[in-house]
């Protein structure tokens, strides 16, 4: 009886502490917020693409597979802006590439370009001063999605505001002058662009012009005005000085600084884009994007990105090849894949191997469903963790054979391809907001199919069930192992324990 009384008292005390913390560390309201909208595209300027004007109703796309191309595209587009920049990201690091891009935004604002930067606050650690400085610029505004109540020791905010803070904005887009946009899987940080001591990511973006761009800007406006979004000026405090310049100065003596300057100098993007000679594929594209209200709570299933994507894809006839770094299909996903296989549709999936993953608990959510997927006929491939080469290697549609997979893409029947932020996991389906483009492109779809056909040129294992146990097959080397690559006694125990816990909905 005494134990029950003590437990009840502790629960009441905890509830009181949570309520008190929410009152003391309450977020500011939206009073005084003006939800401006996208500016009309300028009629003149480097990005006033003549080619797009001659192709009404179509979207021009070019994949950005290599980190160098993806970085250069963003910087060069920012430098070419004459009217507006609308950027939306889940993570923005304060490393070399993050500092260079922040400086590019600030320089654009100095030229009179209107800059709107929307960041998920979960990925802004250490950047409060820089955010405050950019937000204070007369031509720039920064807003934060579901900001943390505490600025120091931010993670402690989960203790009293978990359910709100567990919902994040995972979208990634970079739109300039309402004429060109970059959508895909990359956040802003060295590892996403192929440099630095941290694990590098195989990733994929797409540069798009034409019909789809106004849809992306309208979607940005929708997020900009979301109730989950707060003005950065009410959250972060200015510190004085020039923190953006000070942060960039830290990298002046780094050899990589001059390497990236050389990449920008060598890139040939803006001139052919403005002249209409850039190698673009002109086709149809559909924007799929979650309603930002998802950050406030549950959304009807038919309104989720997955519902939109299912309707946009339509009937799958022959094959589905998917790439995702975080693959947690759950019971429903396994059943869906099994249904496709039963209809004669070949399903192949590439994800990170245990040794390549950067999130061990997510791998546990995949590993517990692996045998069931193999039994249903799904072909599974796992990207190997490799030493990063001195020069980029061609990985089919991807431009860089780095150490860890981060691209989120799938191809259907050799006729269309999805490129965006969506992972095949419960978090992407139910908790995070996501976005991407579904593109009618036989060329891009078949490049992804071909990468699977070639077993990723030896850069991935095919996982098979052989004689009652799992086997990892390296077709390039002609080797087979029944010991999971990257496994250890500790890792195996951790995977088993996490697999037992009722946390799949969080992964």
Key phrases:
507 residues; alpha+beta; Endonuclease, Chain A; 2 domains; 9-stranded mixed sheet; 17 helices
Task: Describe the protein's topology.
Blueprint: H1 2-24, H2 50-53, E1 59-64, H3 67-80, E2 84-89, H4 96-110, E3 114-120, H5 128-136, E4 140-145, H6 158-165, E5 173-176, E6 180-184, H7 190-193, E7 201-202, E8 205-210, H8 212-224, E9 229-231, H9 243-249, H10 255-266, H11 270-275, E10 281-283, E11 285-289, H12 305-313, E12 319-323, H13 330-342, E13 346-352, H14 360-376, E14 379-383, E15 404-405, E16 409-412, E17 416-420, H15 426-431, E18 435-440, H16 442-453, E19 460-466, E20 469-474, E21 479-481, H17 489-500
Parallel strand pairs: 2-3, 3-4, 7-15, 12-13, 13-14
Antiparallel strand pairs: 1-8, 1-10, 2-5, 4-9, 5-6, 6-8, 11-18, 12-16, 14-19, 16-17, 17-18, 19-20, 20-21
Classify the helix fraction into a percent range: 25-40%
N/C terminus separation: 38 Å
Task: Please state roughly what percent of the residues sit in beta strands, choosing from under 5%, 5-15%, 15-25%, 25-35%, 35-45% or over 45%.
Answer: 15-25%
What's the CATH topology name of the largest domain? Endonuclease, Chain A
Oligomer: single chain
Q: Determine the CATH superfamily of the largest domain.
A: Endonuclease Chain A
């Amino acid at each position: 009886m005494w134990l029950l009384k003590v437990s009840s008292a502790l629960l009441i005390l905890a509830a009181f502490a949570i309520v008190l913390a929410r009152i003391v560390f309450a977020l500011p309201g939206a009073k005084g917020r003006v939800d401006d909208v996208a500016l009309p595209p300028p009629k003149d300027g480097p990005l006033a693409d003549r080619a797009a004007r001659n192709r009404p109703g179509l979207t021009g796309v070019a994949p950005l597979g290599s980190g160098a191309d993806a970085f250069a595209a963003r910087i060069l587009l920012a430098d070419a802006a004459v009217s507006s920049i609308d950027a939306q990201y889940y993570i923005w690091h304060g490393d070399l590439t993050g500092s260079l891009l922040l400086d590019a935004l600030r320089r654009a604002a100095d030229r009179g370009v209107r800059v709107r930067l929307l960041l998920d606050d979960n990925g802004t650690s250490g950047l409060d001063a820089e955010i405050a400085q950019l937000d204070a610029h007369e031509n720039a505004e920064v807003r934060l999605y579901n900001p943390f109540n505490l600025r120091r020791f931010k993670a402690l905010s989960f203790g009293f505001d978990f359910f709100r803070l567990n919902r994040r904005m995972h979208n990634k887009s970079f739109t300039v002058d309402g004429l060109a946009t970059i959508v895909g899987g990359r956040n802003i940080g060295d590892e996403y662009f192929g440099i630095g001591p941290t694990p590098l990511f195989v990733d994929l973006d797409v540069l798009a012009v034409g019909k789809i761009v106004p849809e992306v800007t309208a979607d940005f406006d929708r997020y900009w005005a979301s109730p989950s979004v707060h003005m950065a000026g009410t959250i972060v405090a200015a510190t004085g000085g020039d923190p953006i310049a000070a942060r960039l100065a830290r990298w002046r003596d780094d050899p990589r600084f001059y390497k990236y300057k050389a990449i920008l100098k060598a890139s040939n993007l803006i001139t052919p884009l403005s002249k209409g000679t850039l190698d673009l594929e002109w086709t149809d594209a559909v924007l799929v994007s979650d309603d930002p209200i998802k950050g406030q709570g549950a959304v009807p299933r038919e309104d989720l990105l997955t519902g939109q994507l299912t309707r946009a894809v339509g009937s799958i006839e022959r094959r589905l090849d998917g790439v995702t770094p975080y693959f947690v299909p759950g019971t429903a996903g396994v059943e869906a894949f099994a249904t496709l296989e039963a209809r004669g549709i070949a399903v192949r999936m590439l994800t990170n191997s245990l040794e390549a993953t950067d999130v061990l608990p997510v791998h546990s959510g995949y590993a517990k469903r692996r045998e069931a997927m193999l039994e249903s006929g799904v072909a599974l491939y796992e990207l190997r963790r490799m030493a990063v080469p001195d020069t980029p290697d061609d990985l089919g549609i991807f431009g860089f054979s780095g150490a860890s997979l981060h691209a989120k893409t799938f191809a259907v029947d050799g006729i269309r391809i999805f490129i965006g932020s969506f992972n095949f996991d419960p978090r992407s389906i139910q908790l995070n907001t996501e976005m991407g483009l579904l593109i009618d492109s036989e060329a891009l779809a078949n490049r992804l199919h071909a990468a699977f056909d070639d077993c990723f040129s030896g850069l991935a294992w095919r996982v098979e069930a052989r004689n009652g146990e799992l086997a990892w097959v390296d077709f390039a080397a002609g080797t087979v192992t029944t010991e999971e690559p990257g496994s250890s006694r500790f890792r195996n125990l951790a995977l088993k324990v996490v697999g037992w816990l009722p946390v799949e909905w969080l992964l």
